[in-house]
Amino acid sequence: MGRVAGKVVLVTGAGSGIGRATAKLLADEGATVIVTDINQPGGLETVQRIGGPQPGGGARFLPHDTAQEADWKRIIDDILAREGRLDGLVNNAGIAGPFPSTFESETVEQWQRVLSINVQGVFLGCKHGVPALRSSGGGSIVNLSSLAAFLGTPNLSAYGASKGAVRQFTKTVAIDCARKGYKVRCNSVHPGIIMTPMGEGILPNDQIKERVRGSIPIGDFGAPEDIAYGILYLISDESRFVTGSELVIDGGMNAI
Ligand SMILES: NC(=O)c1ccc[n+]([C@@H]2O[C@H](COP(=O)([O-])OP(=O)(O)OC[C@H]3O[C@@H](n4cnc5c(N)ncnc54)[C@H](O)[C@@H]3O)[C@@H](O)[C@H]2O)c1
To answer: Is 159 noted as a catalytic residue in this protein?
Structure first.
């Protein structure tokens, strides 16, 4: 208990899956969590599960499209006005796009939509989040990349490209902030296949699901909480010497 006590942390895409589990774990460990999502009912449900704003912790919801710069300005201004500080930012919101989408079938519209959320959303989060973290005395950013940043993804061509970009951009932010003495750390997290609406969406039937499960060295899919624990570590001060790193949480898939 209390691993992030007193911290104010923004988690994007927290109305579902990994973002919801992360928001819940951070709140359980003492943070005040700003839950944002384009999915308002999902975001409100996350807040309800956490139990709403509480003295020294809890959560509240703000509607947020991470691809829109005006939304980022509004969200950060709101947090600085209400909570008075920002200590952590989890750039979690993301989409897979239609499945399957090979480089031959992908349309320019699909490609741009995936990159506008998965890459531009993370860029805007870092651009607008870093000044708020600095003005709070420093902080930590966690960007959700994927195992897809390391491997070819023939059926998710835009998605794989977007997560490769997040992996690289994270290091750029980390090094730029470190060299400038900003006291802002930035790391990427790389989930394998996690049982969320997105993860289930790339396993269209039971036969494929069991075949994929059998290819995971640890023998099973991950749960959203498996990723949330990694993010908790990176947001907490336990990771104060960690920046520009890649935390792979994938049941061993990237090691084969
Ligand atoms: N589930 C997996 O297997 C897996 C694997 C690797 C990486 N990831 C990454 O983890 C992150 C979370 O994925 P998940 O599995 O929890 O997915 P999910 O679909 O369960 O949740 C994603 C959330 O992001 C929100 N969102 C989508 N576009 C948004 C936007 N423009 N602005 C704000 N919110 C938006 C959705 O409404 C949803 O609530 C994503 O970045 C994803 O790419 C997931």
So the answer is: yes
